[in-house]
């Protein structure tokens, strides 16, 4: 079968022409046979004509086999049809069979119109020819009665064939148009496909051979299309790691698609490039195939590596900054330590008023400077992301107690009441960073004290129920409420910013650096909580914050319930502060007491009288030392007289000016006391003492910050590179029975320790030659080797960061005292460690006391 090269004739048309020509050839042969068998007039002429028509038809038939003739198929068909119909008409007319001529004519008009895809003009030419012949026939044979239906048939054939060709040509024009559009869109798609910046490939799944790739694929792999098509990725060695390839196909098999699959590919030149492949499995011609789009990410990877390197550099810089800050902190705090310490010492010497004022101003400003340095260091650490929160178990109630202890004196000095209430459903044992929680509370309560002139400051701790609370976690809400100056609405949002202070008069009146809340906010956020404030200018502020803690697995067992000494007992509480009355009432009622609270002196005696008459007298009275400026000591004496010998009285002292209050306590003959702020443990202890067997209670009570020192004389080794600090500590211990040997570096300290006999070592951490951590390790090693008893070592450091504290404790120190060192704190630590140090040597490596850090 010859292929059709001409675009103008299709296979179907060719076959139709061929069949038509063959039929006509047969018809002409039949005509010849007729002429031969039945001789008619002019048969020679007719025979010649039929022979000519036969030749034309045979030539037309032959032309269908000659491809070069294809472009002229319409002309050939027209000539062949015209001559063929002419010969038929002539033969028919000669034989006087007009119907035959008519039928042939009709067929010659209808058949090509039905079969050939030629334009209407060509059909019109054929129709015109046939119509002309028909007119000729009618003229030659003359009019006949059957003419009208024949005319109708001819005209109908002309009209019908013309209509068919016209309609078909319009349809084929439309088809051609839509084909053209299809081709155009296909071309555009192809262009997009080729121009896509991503490599696109089609892989037939059963054999995993490439069936199609775009230009980008060729360019990026370096393989040409002909090298790729029909090959597998294994043959082309495209995957750098075959395990990764297996994983890729495995994902496709399981999920039918894969997105942004990270893999390394090998190019034709052997180089390896990283790329991201997305692929989907589809069916093409009934065969499962994978269409993949691959994007090289070499630049991205390089950028990522550069970013990682830049991050490393930034981290190194930040570490350097932190180290710089740590050492600067040491450098600045060490001399400040000496200045403040000396000022403290000097304040204890006889001074005239003017000298005292100067010195107090110096000390105040020194302390402000110290706070500022601490604040800046903290903020720098938080902002550089170097502050890592600890996660240790702690007792919330004990922590709150310490906060109250720390700030109680300051609040009481200003005549403010301070108290804390922890809701019963808040877990007492929590896991978190107690030091930082304490820092937050100290800052908020410190601010509240600073900005409050009269009234009270209360801390409330409640559980905060949050939907996201996981098991073993608790969100706790703290509220620090004061009755101070309050904050204007427009400043409420700004006070948490760095260095922001309400207005310039705030700074003048109250001092501060404007950093406290900024650090607090960040710490709170690090604890997974948030901080906000509600405030009314002139009425006070409440700072709220939440923090998330973990809960220890085994929750603390509640202490075995022993019957409280006040169980069922009638107890009277007299305090002007509603907060304290509520707190005491809650604590004592919790112990089973029947509590009555009063807020004025007069009511105390009235109540005692009333109870006596009811025959249900009060057995315990808790009386505040100050009730509305009245004298609580006098009141206690009168109450004692009124209530009889059986009654026990606990005087509640404020934490400022303790010495004189204790003096008055003794003068009034009151045996029991406790020191505010009110804390559950203190109340229960005081009640226990008061209701317990009678002893000389006053002398058994340890007086806070008092100078009573019953410690045995100790031989202390002090290592500090600063001569001023050595002098300062020596001055601190001047009036104590202890003897201090000072050395200026760690190496000397180790040497002196080995050659001497010391009860305690005070070790500065940053020292030349050998630092404190190293010296401590040396001393501990020496103790183990010589099987000596463990000597307490106290780290002295200006470093305020928790990891330096942890580091020194890990090196073998027992305590950590932050600089600037306060005399009371130093004496307290020395006294405690001396009391703990046992004459029996502990086993090697076992710490002598639980490690603790005092900031
Ligand atoms: P500062 O060291 O100045 O106290 P803070 O960051 O702790 O710095 O506080 C910023 C500002 O917020 C304060 O200067 C004050 O104007 C306001 N502020 C904070 N706490 C209170 C409060 N309890 N009552 C009134 N104003 C407060």
Assign a percent range to the helix content. 40-55%
Mean pLDDT: 83
User: End-to-end distance, in Å?
Assistant: 104 Å
- Structural class by sheet pairing and helices: alpha/beta
- The total of helices stands at 26
Bound molecules: adenosine-5'-diphosphate
Low-confidence stretches: 1-7, 695-710, 838-855
- How many beta-strand runs? 25
| Overall 3D form | elongated
Radius of gyration: 55 Å
DSSP strand content: 15-25%
Largest sheet: 6 strands, parallel
Going across the major beta sheet, what is the strand order?
Answer: 21-20-22-23-24-25
Would you mind describing this structure in some detail?
- With about 850 residues, the chain is α/β, with parallel strands linked by helices.
- It contains 26 helices and 25 strands.
- Helix 3 packs parallel to helix 5, helix 10 runs antiparallel to helix 11 and helix 10 (about 300-345) packs across helix 22.
- It is elongated, with a radius of gyration of 55 Å.
- About 35% of the residues are buried.
- The structure holds adenosine-5'-diphosphate.
Which descriptors would you attach to this protein?
single chain; 855 residues; alpha/beta; six-stranded parallel sheet; five-stranded antiparallel sheet; 17% strand; elongated; disordered C terminus; binds adenosine-5'-diphosphate
